[in-house]
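quick one, 394 residues, struct below
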Amino acid sequence: MTALTHFRTPLLQTPFHARTAAANVLNRWGPWGGYMTALCFGDADMEYTAIRNGASVYDLCPMVKYRITGRDAAGYLNRLTLRDAGRLSVGGVQYTGWTDDDGKLLDDGTLFRHGPEDYLICCQERHLPWFLASAEGFEVEVAEVTEEIAALSLQGPCSATVLQAAGFDVFALKPFRMARFPFAGGEITVSRTGFTGDLGYELWMEPGQALPLWDHLMQAGAPWGIRPIGTDALNLARIEAGFIIANMDFIPAHQALREDRARSPLELGLGWMIDWDKGPFTGRRALLAEKEKGSDWVLVGLDIPGNVSAEGSILYYDKRAEAGIVTAAAWSPALKANVAIAQVKARHATGENLWVEIYALRELQYAKLMVPVTVAERPFFNPARKRATPPGRV
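---
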């Protein structure tokens, strides 16, 4: 019996489940996209340390995946997403997003171009009805292929060395590029991408290759302390990197119960990815109007005194007027700082006279603290090795 047997709809097991279940000594699981995902295998601190100082593996199989193929694939994606998919070369990857007609963000994700007419979108939420409706008038095929592709994230400063030891020569692979390698009678795809803000790779394969690849990597990576990590450690790393997550840092527009809860890419710090010159795309008119008028909200990084997490806390201007909310926060071991991501009303974006209300446990009872905050640049953690050529060869 698992910790998730109380769910009415049984959660699916990923192709890596036989290995993750054996390693999950705490039996701590959480739901992700209809699958079971490990929250922590045994020691969240050691798992975080593997991300920042060694090598870590994280089961990415629950990530939702859509394949877009056909003569109009690039044109369709240019109408659907914010960036110019036509300019993405074969073998390349781009971080992108898509909005509704009002310019409010539906989701963000990574777009992979496997061929001239062959793309793959990986994202957090399911959007098949929207994708199909958006395909009207284009000669494309859109299909969800989540169960057809297993995925594993290998992150950390030793990740390239581990892959090299496993027989995958990735030292020449640049950020946001991918390459194919033979393995177990077939091929796997390795992309230099990740969600930790560190040197890292993501491995894509057929489900039948999952367990052999896991065993192969764990054996090859043993000298560098490779270990599986759960969502708890990954979330800490992504906060340090300043990355955002749907339904945590923003509510997808189609899921927002109130209109004022949806946010645009401009309000979430994603304006840099909008290609205004590529032609019409969904939400363009609304986003142009917002660009000219100015946004109501901004997403900022915060530096908060002390070491008590402010996640979910309300921000105030001059300790009186509500000014925003902290969407994610954590004590950063790498930075020795209490960092946070927050949505703030645009007029308070500088952080002047901005305070956060935190409830802290003191002497077995909660005490309310009003603490001043400072706006800090994201990413909080941005090591040069993330984009550098990995040094040396095994």
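The chain has a mean pLDDT of 95.
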